[in-house]
Amino acid sequence: MKVNKKGLLAGGAIAIGATLVLAGCAGGDTETDDSDATAEGGSLTVWVDSERVDALQGAADAYSEETGITVELVGKDNNTIKDDFIQQVPTGEGPDITMGAHDWLGELSTNGVVAPLELGDSADGYLPVAINAATYDGTVYMLPYAVENIAVLRNADIVPEAVGSFDEMIAAGEDAGLDQPFVVEQGAEGNPYHLYPFQTAFGAPVFGSDENGYNADDLQLGNDGGQEFAAWLSTEGKNGTGNFNTDIDGDIAKQSFLDGDSAFWLTGPWNVGSAIDAGINVAIDPIPSPTSDAAQPFAGVKGFFLSSESENKVAANDFLVNYLGSEDVQLALFEAGNILPALTAAAETASSDPIIEGFATVGQDAVPMPAIPAMGSVWQYWGIAEASIINGEDPSATWTKLAEDVQSAIDG
Amino acid sequence: MTTTTDEGVDGAKRASGAPPKKPTKRQRQAAGIADAASGGLGLMLVKIVSLGLVDAIALYALFVLVVNDEWLIAAIVAVVAIFVNWVYFSRKRLPAKYLTPGVIFLVIFQIFVLIYTSYVGFTNYGTGHNGSKEQAVGALMSAALDRVPDSPTYPVAVVDRLGELSLVVTGPNGGVFIGGEERPLEPASGAQMENGVAVGVDGYTTLSFQEIVARTDEITELAVPFSDDPNEGALRTPDGRSAYQYTSSLEYDEAAGTMTNLDTGVVYTDIGTGAFTSDAGDELLPGWQITVGFDNYLKALTDTRLSGPLAYVTTWTFAFAAISVASTFFLGLFLAIVFNDMRMRGRKLYRTVLILPYAVPSFLSALVWAGMMNESFGFINQVLLGGASVPWLTDPVMAKVSVLLVNLWLGFPYMFLVCTGALQSIPDEVVEAATVDGARPWGIFRLIKLPLLLVTVAPLLIASFAFNFNNFNIIYMLTNGGPRDTGAPIPVGYTDILITMVYKVAFTGQTRDYGLASAYSILIFIVVAVISIIAFRRTKALEELN
């Protein structure tokens, strides 16, 4: 009899727990459902990369004060924000606006979760690469706020002057007595993003482009320039000079540069902070080209997307285009993230910083990373092919197979 | 529940005739609960308060769910709440009082997940088939709106008359026009101007920004024909302040279920595949979710691009799981026997050290091992092997060996713990009797200790097999399935096991296929379940040894 009643006690506790769980699930519905709030004056839910919540908070509060529309910022993990957005928008539980990167655009648009944005006359105020990247299939879907690209970080204590070409760079490092003058992250599966500048220097973009942007039907990857690039990569790989090595991943490349074992590091603005913290005298140089043509890196553009199921499209459009697109807000976001603002006026102000100016100069040559869904078929083969060329596979055959695999994956 | 055991211990002490001591805190607590239990009134109060809480929460949940039109879930919550009340307010139904909480958890965390996964396995849920048809149509239509090239920005004011919205538009030359849904723009008279822009018209109320926001739905729908000529498109205002002239390149015919591209004249029809499809087979994306029956299963098993890799990945998965279980078990058992020997000094210290790999989170260890096994820079090649270049993770065969080695390192402490416990539970008398009968150590181990041990350990070995069968962490963190099989048409590598292959097929790249992934999950579930059932049946034979 005793046991019976104690079981009941425990049972009661568990039942409470279970119901709490149920209630918790149910509660989730109300938080993001803003149909009630709309009637009262409007509210916007904005998903933001957790690290940028503080940067945007001031802008959000100021907008609320000005218009009476509540802007609720929700910090999200940058790795899951895209998948969460795609999955939650159709259920009506997603946010009104989400922060993201332009290369998500193909996926977001194919899933029908983003609404077109009309930038109106303000479109002329943005860097051309930003507008270019925000446009998908002829329609603008993203309010750009920052432009990001890779460049060469030079240890100015080891090599005081900028170098001209790739070979000069290696020679300058070797003259300074370094075994590995130049590092770039690769890893076992390769890293095409970081190799792309060299590939473009040989005249081999991934896709050809027309007035609507990249054209998925025009795969340029396997052209003659691509073959030349593959041959060059092979001579710089394991059986050649060893300047490229798949054993060097992001951490090893970073450590090598921070320890002064390498004078040149091809990387993005996200690593500049740690180099400066390590006491390195960092200079930002254009990417030395192995040919006479410019080495063009990919540009990644960050921005804000409007949900296609938002019930507050008018307020959201106003907040994005007329408010987040203003110079003050773009500069505030720049100060939080330290990457080049997408608004030309803000970008000019930000370029008073030599590091930012360095990246901006390199960025003038940058091309937007293709956002078309066909790009997904490229990534899965691209790095692996480059890695095997670096590791001594036959460059010509591997590159030909890469182009064939990508083409058949695109064709389905 | 713990109080019951405490009482058990307590009772045992008393029975063994231990001298009565001053009761400890726990004993007093136990006595208090026992009193309350037999007392009735106190317990009744606790019962009423607990159930009251449960009911309050259930009511709140019901309220929220009904407000959100989630009728099905609301009904389930109501039924469960009534059932819980019925069970615990009844004087009988003792088994139900024990079982109810467990069953509720089982349903929420196991059965629901399984049913939902199999449901997704029968749909085309994935990239391009993400929402409902209505949403797909909405997204297609809004994407099809094109701003007329070189058309100006028109400052607008949104005005209302008798609940019907109109736009007051200021033209580039300063002219003021008014128009509404299906009412083309016409010159407006009596405009109120501010800084050269019309802000209102006599006879209409101008909406404030708050009012505009409150009527978002109407305003996003509002398309004011530019003129009587439909080819000139319509004015729409995305933000209530400026309007732009748009034409649409798609026309939706709901009755016929077709989308027509007005530029090319191509007709896209809903042919039941979850997307508007042209006669030439081109699909307009986004499409929508539909049920596809067994298509995903058929695709997983018969699509040559998927079935080839599926076969050898399955083989390796079985090998990986079996070898991992065997190697960790035998190493753990060996060490347990060694450290169970009374003659060994410092056994406790050794045992503590041996448990360490188990104490470090496995995905962290796997990452550290991946670093140590780096061909050019890793600790093993550089320091231990003096600069050798052993391709630990980059050669297909070596990578498999490395995976097994690291998994052995991660897994043996568990087996060591389990075996130590099981060995210590074998009575010394059994061994002594065997020794007296003239058995040798190997014989004692093989014929007496091992069978007794297996009775305890066999279910754990089966669990361990099932765990390793889906050991995502080690593969993903150590090799990420690599080195990649460059010959395979999907991104699969030589050390991929089923679960990592499913992950790669379904979730990497920009094309997700949740339906296919769910179908794979169900297939894996069936395989693991069948193996477990067979193995558990066999272990019953072992139990009969006792």
UniProtKB/TrEMBL annotation, chain A:
Pfam families: SBP_bac_8 (PF13416). Keywords: Signal, Sugar transport, Transport. PROSITE patterns: PROKAR_LIPOPROTEIN. InterPro entries: Maltose/Cyclodextrin-bd, SBP. One of its GO terms (cellular component) is ATP-binding cassette (ABC) transporter complex, substrate-binding subunit-containing. Residues 1-23 form the signal peptide. The keyword Transit peptide does not apply. GO terms for molecular function: carbohydrate transmembrane transporter activity; maltose binding. One of its GO terms (biological process) is maltodextrin transmembrane transport. Belongs to the bacterial solute-binding protein 1 family. This is Sugar ABC transporter substrate-binding protein. It comes from Agromyces rhizosphaerae.
Automatic annotation (TrEMBL), chain B:
The chain crosses the membrane at residues 45-65, 71-89, 101-122, 316-337, 349-370, 401-423, 443-467, 488-506, 518-536. It is a multi-pass membrane protein. CDD domains: TM_PBP2. Gene3D superfamilies: MalF N-terminal region-like (1.20.58.370), MetI-like (1.10.3720.10). InterPro entries: MalF_N, MetI-like, MetI-like_sf, TM_PBP2_N. Residues 1-28 are annotated as: Disordered. GO terms for cellular component: maltose transport complex. Residues 314-535 form the ABC transmembrane type-1 domain. It comes from the Bacteria. Keywords: Cell membrane, Membrane, Sugar transport, Transmembrane, Transmembrane helix, Transport. It is found in: Cell membrane. GO terms for molecular function: ABC-type maltose transporter activity. PANTHER family: MALTOSE/MALTODEXTRIN TRANSPORT SYSTEM PERMEASE PROTEIN MALF, MALTOSE_MALTODEXTRIN TRANSPORT SYSTEM PERMEASE PROTEIN MALF. Belongs to the binding-protein-dependent transport system permease family. MalFG subfamily. Part of the ABC transporter complex MalEFGK involved in maltose/maltodextrin import. Probably responsible for the translocation of the substrate across the membrane. This is Maltose/maltodextrin transport system permease protein. It comes from Agromyces rhizosphaerae. The lineage of its organism: Bacteria, Bacillati, Actinomycetota, Actinomycetes, Micrococcales.
